[in-house]
Each structure stands twice: as structure tokens, then as C-alpha cells.
Amino acid sequence: MLVLTRKAGERVLIGDDIVVTILDARGDGVRIGIDAPRGIRIQRDEVVKAVTEANQEATQSAAGTDDAEALIKKSLGL
């Protein structure tokens, strides 16, 4: 891992077409801007982890039911 110290307004270049700009630094938070081509996905780690966990839980609960009709009836209270 590369660790850098930057001030507001300074940039970090990644490859030829990704630019990370430090917008603001206050207390324990830093605001950054990322300029990248449209084809590059930029995700927050905590969001990706939360979605992955939710998908795993949904898969496990769906695997525990015998059929979809029973699951629907159960969710409707029938």
C-alpha cells in the first residue's frame, strides 16, 4: 500500500486516466474527488460489503425454504 500526505487541492494520478483530488480535510475526515473514465466502477467499500452480506443472507434464507409458494404464503401470513 502506498501512503501519501496531501493537502487540499493537491492531486494523485493513477495510471494515465484517473485523478484523485483532495477537496477538504477536517478532523478525522477527508473529502476526495475522483475523475475517472465512465467504464471504471468506483464503489465505497462499506456499501459493497453490506450488499454482499445482504445477498448472502437472502440466498441462505431462500435455500432454507422448499418452494416459492410456501415462502410467499408465509410472508403474507396465510
TrEMBL record:
Signal peptide: none annotated. It comes from the Bacteria. It holds the Pfam family CsrA. Its main location: cytoplasm. Coiled coil: none annotated. It is found in: Cytoplasm. Keywords: Bacterial flagellum biogenesis, Cytoplasm, Repressor, RNA-binding, Translation regulation. The keyword Transmembrane does not apply. The keyword RNA-binding applies. A translational regulator that binds mRNA to regulate translation initiation and/or mRNA stability. Usually binds in the 5'-UTR at or near the Shine-Dalgarno sequence preventing ribosome-binding, thus repressing translation. Its main target seems to be the major flagellin gene, while its function is anatagonized by FliW. Belongs to the CsrA/RsmA family. Homodimer; the beta-strands of each monomer intercalate to form a hydrophobic core, while the alpha-helices form wings that extend away from the core. This is Translational regulator CsrA. It comes from Leifsonia virtsii. The gene is csrA.
